[in-house]
Design a protein that fits this description.
The complex is a heterodimer. By secondary structure, chain A is α/β, with parallel strands linked by helices. Chain A has 3 helices and 7 strands, in the order H-E-E-E-E-H-E-E-H-E. Chain B is globular. By secondary structure, chain B is an alpha/beta fold. The chains are: A alpha/beta, B alpha/beta. The interface between A and B is large, with 91 and 78 residues. Strand 7 of chain A pairs parallel with strand 1 of chain B.
Amino acid sequence: MASAAEHDVPIPYMQRTRDYYQTLGFPAYRWAHFADVPFAPLAKPLAASRVALITTAAPYQPGVGDQGPGAKYNAAAKFYTVYSDTTESAPDLRISHVGYDRKHTTAEDSRTWFPLAALQASVKAGRIGALTPRFHGSPTNRSQRVTLESDAPELLRRCREDAADVVVLVPS
Amino acid sequence: MSLVARHLEADGLPTVIMGCAKDIVEHCGVPRFLFSDFPLGNSAGKPFDADSQAATLELALRVLESAPAPRTTVQSPQRWNDDAAWKLDYNNLAKLTPEDIAERRKEFESVKATIKDMPGRK
């Protein structure tokens, strides 16, 4: 088995971003950091569970500029409150509002950041019991206070309302 | 997203995160995490590759049902490609010219102004 290259490690995003912001002259960002982590065991097998899906992708909004594929970072396409939509069809979701790797990926295939089709296939195969009727969108406004005080409780409320047993979260 | 997973889990709702930013998610501390060593934007598998997407979700489901304790990270065995050179590019100052940096500074200022003006901003 050949050795891997030295740089063949998960990208150190925090260090890269710290250096990058410092050079550009912007204030340092402090990422969320906790010593304790909650843990809830599954109440029943996945084949009998209702699965909720939470995404950071944004619904396409006409009139707020290029949203891709391949669009530049588009802050105007951000959303600021939790949204929900049906899991019965395929919504038009985009990721131009977040800092994805624009050099090495093109954002042409939404299934790479929004696994609804794969989840639907898992329901069909009997791997999971069902999907909740709605998926939910989680804002990416970089305010941890807003996430903790507004968005997370609202997402919890909606997952409970939909009788979710487990939740798959996919940041884009 | 990590904060949301923690909040749901604290209320008794089991979660799994599918993501590509290993250090940021682990720094926060989450219950279960399937890490794909792919460029940001591909948390759910490779573009136009149904097998990759199905395998990524399946592994996330296995992490969800079998993690023995919080902070369980599993790294997907999938490779973005054989050459790992793509990992040297993202926001890497060593690869940017002074002109690139000036351009990005300008872009960042305009983004900041846009976000400040957004309705609903708290």
